[in-house]
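Quick one before lunch.
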Amino acid sequence: MAFPLMGDDTVRHTLPSPIPNPYWVAFSPSCAKLIGVPVGANQLPTDKQWLDLLAGNSLKTNTHQFPHPIASVYSGHQFGVWAGQLGDGRAILLGDIAGQELQLKGAGKTAYSRMGDGRAVLRSSIREFLCSEAMHALGIPTSRALAVVGSKMPVLREVSETAAICARVAPSFMRVGHFEHFSSLQNTGRLKELADDLITHHYPHCLDSAEPYLALFNSISKRNAALVAQWQAVGFCHGVLNSDNISVLGLTIDYGPFGFLDQFQIDHICNHSDHSGRYAYHRQPQIMHWNMACLASAMLPLLELNHSREDAQALLTNALEDFPSAYAQVWQKSFRDKLGLYTSEEADIRLIERLLQLMHDSRADYTSLFRNLGSIEKGSRPEENLLRDQFLDRSGFDLWLKEYFARLAKEPLDDQTRKMRMNAVNPKYVLRNHLAQHAIELAQNDDFSEVHKLLNILSMPFDDQPQHQSYSLAPPEDLQTISVSCSS
Ligand code: AMP
Ligand code: MG
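Model of the magnesium ion complex:
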């Protein structure tokens, strides 16, 4: 639901700035279906007005009007430090469509652009588009992407690039940073409106609670705990887990220098600008918890409406303490599923951790290793196992496999059924950096075919798609260390 119009200091009516000669770079028929946009045989909207709308050059199509686009302000903690007001300098919310917000990222300056140009470049828009749709297909909560529209308009980053707009879709783009913004201004009235709006539209069950705001905090925290557990399971690193990039709906949002793990390294840092490794793979759960602490302190004034400061703090602190167990529950279930374990034993956790340790020591390819685990035949000889070659410590792997087989023996499923179920949670195809990079390089030369191809392949990540086998493989050695920075 659209952000409530709460006055000039909260949202500003902001018209997108037109871009010259826009063209389609990418379009997602699946996202179009979600918001009821009819699509033709060419996989583009039948109504040609959509191109101008998503380019920011018009505010209507034949069927829809968006007369009051807005930009909404928020603040946040960046790399652990309070950064004050910082967003939204380049995303313009067109309005609601089929219960979803339609937002144009990179549609020009807003009232909150500060020194920025309000634009986004082709490279980062393609990455956001592909990853949003890929994450959705993986079953991970995420904002969606409807399209990327390009233009030859130059945009200056480290070098001169060209402009693009990513049209994003989500039930709400509200962030922890929105709460922090009004809390930092000690504007409890606005804070309350924000929370009430969120409860009404997205968390109505909180009204059944004697403490609706506490229930709201609990629900948001739980969703984000589950989200980060799902990221860990699929080997996704967000890259910039600043509090302004954390959705209060528990969605993955703001795809920047993200990365899927290729060679597994527990402390992998996907963001070139993250010098201290604050957002490394193994730190994501702890950082999400930290972001929930930011939310808790931002929500404190709401609890104080009915409680003393001490009591309000105690209630939120207690609620915050539930995060690790909420996370662990989803993490354990996800990894048991990845290993084909459907009953649960305490020793399973050790078994999972030992596999991850072996993978880390050998820098095994994360996605393909888990995928291929499903094909192992119970009781087969370790020496005959093809996965064995991925481990430097072969005898360590043999030993692990022996214990894994012993554990599988307690599961009722036959190999074939287990493989089917494991393949439904261990994707064959993820948006590896080198694949995105290849598609981007072609797109920068006006060839968008690889973007379209990737969208199709990644929309069925669990299917075998033997004709696309090469897209499932680890990157060749010279493409293993593509570095991605915050520049976008
Ligand atoms: P990010 O680190 O990409 O999440 O960006 C943080 C905030 O910086 C966003 O909410 C935007 O409002 C703002 N921002 C990023 N790039 C630009 C830009 N080119 N022009 C204006 N604002 C920007
Ligand atoms: Mg952001």
